[in-house]
Amino acid sequence: MAINRYKDLPNKSLLRPDEVASFFGVSKRTVYGWVDIGKLEGVKPTQGILRIFRESVIKLIKSEE
Q1: What is d(CA 51, CA 21) in angstroms, rounded to the nearest whole number?
Q2: Mean pLDDT across the chain, nearest whole number?
């Protein structure tokens, strides 16, 4: 039986920065920095709002295994 490494990651396609920060155990500021340098991919649907693609988070996890 495979272990679900992503069980604590919300099961939706777009994640809030606080959800990603909580998952990785880092600050929201760190998450924003990761988006700025391209470590995570996100979208700004409206000014001042950032959402991170769940697949981007999974890709980051896999790249660090």
Answers
A1: 12
A2: 90
- As a whole number of angstroms, the distance between CA 41 and CA 51 comes to 9
Q: Which two tokens mark 21?
A: 């920060």
Asked whether 23 and 57 are in contact (CB, 8 A), the reply is yes
Structure tokens that stand for 2 in this block: 């495979």
Domain boundaries, given as residue ranges, for the chain: 14-63
Taking only the tens place, the pLDDT of each residue in 13-44 is 999 999 999 999 999 999 999 999 999 999 99
Sign of CA dihedral 38, 34, 52, 1: positive
Four-residue CA torsion sign, 59, 60, 63, 65: negative
